[in-house]
Amino acid sequence: QHQRELPHPPSLSPASSSAPLRGVRFRGACKRLYISGERMTGGGGGRKASPMLQHAQPGMGRSFVARQKGAKESVLGQLFHPAVHKYSFLLLTSAVGIDIVISRMGMPYVGQIVSSFMVVCYLLDFISIRRAVCAWWSAIMDIFFKEISAGGTHRLEALNDGRAVIFACAPHVNQFIDPLIVMKAVAENAGRHVSWMTAQKTYDRKYLGMFARALKTIPVMRPDDMERKGEGFVTASGTKVYGHAGTRFTKDFEKGCVIVVKTKTGKKTAKVAKVVDDYTLELAAPLKGRGKEAVKSDTIHFERVLSPLATFLLLALVTAPLLLLLPHLLPQRFAFAGCVCCCCVGSAVTNLIYTLRRDGLSGKELFGGTPATFRTPSTPTIAAIDAPVDPEDMGDDMTDKTPYSLQPFVDQSAMFDQVTESLLRGGTIGIFPEGGTHDGTQLLPLKWGISVMLLGAMAKQEGLEKPIKISVVPVGLNYFAPHKFRSTVSVDFGDPIEVHQDLALQWKNGTKEQKAEANAAVMELIMAGVNSCTLQANDMNTLEVFRTIRRLWAPSGVRLSVADNVALTQGFASGFDRVKGDPKVKEIMERCYKYNSLLSTYRVQDHHVQRFRQHAFSNKDRITLIRKTIVRMVMLVLFGAFIVPWALIGAPVGLFLSVISDQKAKEVQKMSVKGTWKILMAPIVLSLLHGVCVACISSTFGEVPSLLWFFFAPVGAVYAIFAAEDGVRLVKSLNALTLLLGNRNIGQQLFEMREGLKKDIRAINKTKNNWLDNLDVPTRQRLEQRQSFTLEEDPEDSSFSKVEKPSD
């Protein structure tokens, strides 16, 4: 092992340790180990380290520390020779051998007990609880999402010097999934474990709190979670709030509390500066707020969601006839299997009816009409970008008597001390500065807590010769369908933000106004960084237009990665404010709206239109289209023969997850909780279903088939998922082929519309006022290194022979 001298960390004085502090490099990652008595903390991080490796606990690191300051002996150190640490594979080999030998001696249970004990000892010594929990959730994320891409990873190379890091992540649209996605991306690309700021409400829950503690999260008491309704009604004038109908301000409020008033346009809040009496409050600033969030076009209509009871009755109504008929037609041996099959078929039919009811789809819309979840606005949405701000959101007086609620003052000093201690050890903190989840396509105002954490930790290092660096890394979470199974997500890292020490001193020693200026300066930097790596638009339709423009602008014959797609779409979205006054840009936006509407109407994808060449409509090529259609139909039948049985088996799980996630979303009126409840409940429901299937096969076919199913059914299910994705692509391609065979003029019109848009979009990007001027140089270099395309080129390839399916 290579050892080297390391300086004392700022959080430890030189006198706190009698021996020189040493670091150790192991398993490809350079870690700084600080030892004070029997306590060890870890900082820094190397590239491509183990995802769960931060505090250097498992494996070689633990045995090294045990040999240093007389740390506690590990499990294997107490039971076996120290050489086992180096040759741990011998323990597993011995466990297998003991199991086989003792089993052959006629005592299989004894052999299994002894070998299991040895395996448990190995796991306790070499695998930490945190590593196991992170590996578990990482595996679930890989199953739930088809692709998790990381962009801007070159910006994380600056973190290899061991500095402390705060990851500022936005937008927060997927509750518990968002931190797991970022944690996975950071672990794989920076070798750091992120300790997340977690709501105390979540921390106190029995099972979620157990996972939160295992992941080393930091609890935060949020005033929003303690909000309660006040008595009476209020009106407001400037910084004065007046109570009516029995308000009790002196009992309910104190200095620092927050009063919350919900109006027709949204929610207004203000901090209480002084409680005058039971009917008068003085506010630190007038009541202000923001309008209601723009609802995304894919948001479900909660009033159309069937209740769990109604869904259960529908399931019983569909399944009862099958249960009464099918088991009687089968031999007694297959009765149990017949009942399970009836329940699976009934669940599939119920799930289909439930989905049609929830999404408001008719049979025509399902098989060829315009879906209800995508309505093209009658007025182009780009006009809404310049819409004036509602004066009521600017803090005007409130003359109508309005109900109110209050949020108590919470002393966060203990939480900030815990964050400061972690940062001064070189730790990694994760936070969502928006303060909560939402369904909008734009960022919520960022809260100042992150600036207080940064400036507070930097102020603690005043006077130190070598203060530890503390950086804020903005992270953008860009989903293509955040709550849907097997969708894609891109985690985009921004440039690390470093704040000068003078700003921290101003925050520490300055007046109240100077502290506010320091906080505002930091928040301005963080907001700019987050904006640079997130996709934002006025609504979902506008965001889809930016994605269409990106597809039309990209050269033909190449396939972009998810990170490339996000970088380009973000370039068009962020550059739109600069060019939106150009009449040509407005015309392109409106034409793209119409193009997207036609694609949705005819159920074809943009990459299908690329193949609608003029010579494809001759009589000779019509035969070729018919042959391709027949071949793909045969392939679809073969795929269906493999997919349908697995789909029926998993139908009860799909129905249950849809019902529970929709009900939870309906309770809070947010779509952001749907994905969370799916991944929380899926392991439980899948385990129960797997057990039922094993029992069914065991009672029908015997022990050996049930064992084969128990161990290999998960593998078959994963391959069924892959086959289903290919089957969906086949169905979409058949839609395009049947469109061409049925009406060749439609395909020609779409092709000509696409070619015209592509030509105009590329032409406008050649002007001096380039739409993509905001695309940074490192992103250009990264795309060129991946050989996706070169931004300076303008290929005019019209053959489309190399067109591949897009990654989104």
Give an overview in words:
This protein has 808 residues and is α+β, with helices and mostly antiparallel strands. The protein is built from 27 helices and 21 strands. The strands form 3 sheets. Strands 9, 10, 11, 12, 13, 14, 15, 16 and 17 form a 9-stranded antiparallel β-sheet that branches. Strands 5, 6, 7, 8, 18, 19, 20 and 21 form an 8-stranded mixed β-sheet that branches. A hairpin with a 2-residue loop joins β12 (258-263) and β13 (266-277).
Secondary-structure map with pairings?
Elements: E1 2-5, E2 22-26, E3 29-36, E4 39-43, H1 60-67, H2 75-79, H3 83-86, H4 89-104, H5 108-126, H6 129-144, E5 145-151, E6 164-170, H7 177-190, E7 195-199, H8 200-203, H9 206-214, E8 218-220, E9 228-229, E10 233-237, E11 240-244, H10 249-252, E12 258-263, E13 266-277, E14 280-283, E15 288-291, H11 308-329, H12 335-359, H13 363-367, E16 398-402, E17 404-407, H14 413-424, E18 428-431, H15 449-459, E19 470-479, E20 487-493, E21 497-498, H16 501-509, H17 512-531, H18 540-553, H19 562-579, H20 583-602, H21 606-609, H22 619-649, H23 651-668, H24 674-701, H25 703-742, H26 744-764, H27 777-785
Parallel strand pairs: 5-20, 6-18, 6-19, 7-8, 7-18
Antiparallel strand pairs: 1-2, 2-3, 3-4, 9-17, 10-11, 10-16, 11-14, 12-13, 12-17, 13-14, 13-15, 19-20, 19-21
